[in-house]
Amino acid sequence: MSAPNKSYDPVEVEALKPEEIERMRDEALAAFAAAGDLEQLQEAKVAHTGGTSPLALANREIGALPPHAKADAGKRVGQARGAVSKALAARQAELEAERDARVLVEEAVDVTLPYDRVPAGARHPLTTMMERVADVFVSMGYEIAEGPEVEAEWFNFDALNFTPDHPARQMQDTFFVHGAKSGDSDGESGVILRTHTSPVQARALLDREPPVYIVCPGRVYRTDELDATHTPVFHQIELLAVDEGLTMADLKGTLDHMVQSLFGADMKTRLRPNYFPFTEPSAEMDMLCYVCRGESVGNPDKACRTCSSEGWIELGGCGMVNPRVLVACGVDPEKYSGFAFGFGIERMLMFRHNVEDMRDMVEGDVRFTRPFGMEI
Ligand code: FA5
Fold this sequence. Notes:
Blueprint (H helix, E strand, L loop, with lengths): L17 H17 L3 H12 L4 H8 L5 H40 L18 H14 L4 E2 L5 E3 H4 L19 E3 L12 E3 L5 H9 L4 E10 L11 E11 L4 H16 L5 E8 L2 E10 L23 E10 L1 H6 L8 E8 H8 L6 H4 L3 H4 L7
Parallel strand pairs: 1-5
Antiparallel strand pairs: 2-4, 3-4, 5-6, 6-10, 7-8, 8-9, 9-10
């Protein structure tokens, strides 16, 4: 409080008496302290700092004081109002902190609780890989063709120029559903699980008139043991083109286009002589190593695990359709020629995504499929 001023009568205005102002201040401070939550504090704030609060009204009275008394009264009211707004801010911060702490507890989520929602599924990477390859050919105008997995021996072998004593027909390579009926004068075909997608070549040629451009993704079966690089049930993609004037150059161009679409514009393929009964000439097709692009060859500093530093990866088999197959399917080999190729999707997935063990693809563990994304 200021020093007594003889020419000033503090009793001139009741509301500005020093003890009155102290009372107003103390009441405000007590109301703030008593407010138990932010709502009550808001009410106390309106009552003690609002336009009609005692201190605001007292402030207005200052104007009515004689000039010599204004400064002293103004100082007292100002100090009281300052103390009130400081106490209000402090209590506000206190109550907000309490509220935040309470909300954190009340709205806490236990992320370790067992989760009862069914996780969204996704297609297997083998399926999406197969579709991706098929799409390359669909965009070139090829048609998707299908054939049965339980297949007539005739389509799987005879129509494709496999001789009756070909080793692939043996029980150790092929799952037989039942063999040819013995003593059957019509020589009725046995029934097997198809060992490759090539029987769809014969089915497509019997179904359609050339020109024929088909791509066939599908599941095939062999009596191979399940190991890191083999499975008894796997997937192949078959391609067949039969038209007038097709040559090995068309085959090579198509293969290059496929690997460039799937692996990048600098990709290329190479052909190595091979033998398949249903193509002549036949070749093994390799593509430039997807990882080292051939740079690991003769370069121990850049050794490549994907291609064992050979620079090339084996993709599958291919060749010009054997005229005997065309004849067996009623197509004139004098007029038409064709090319075909087929390869394994599991092997492609292995080297494209560095999968070291093929068994991971068939065990159905989502920890394997999840990194491929939830593509549907
Ligand atoms: C064939 O199956 C021929 N039908 C391919 C063909 C089509 C040649 C058209 C000419 C014209 P092959 O037996 O090599 O060929 O098998 C092709 C691919 O299937 C192999 O390169 C390999 O990638 C895959 N494959 C073969 N056996 C298995 C297996 N047990 N597990 C996983 N993939 C396999």
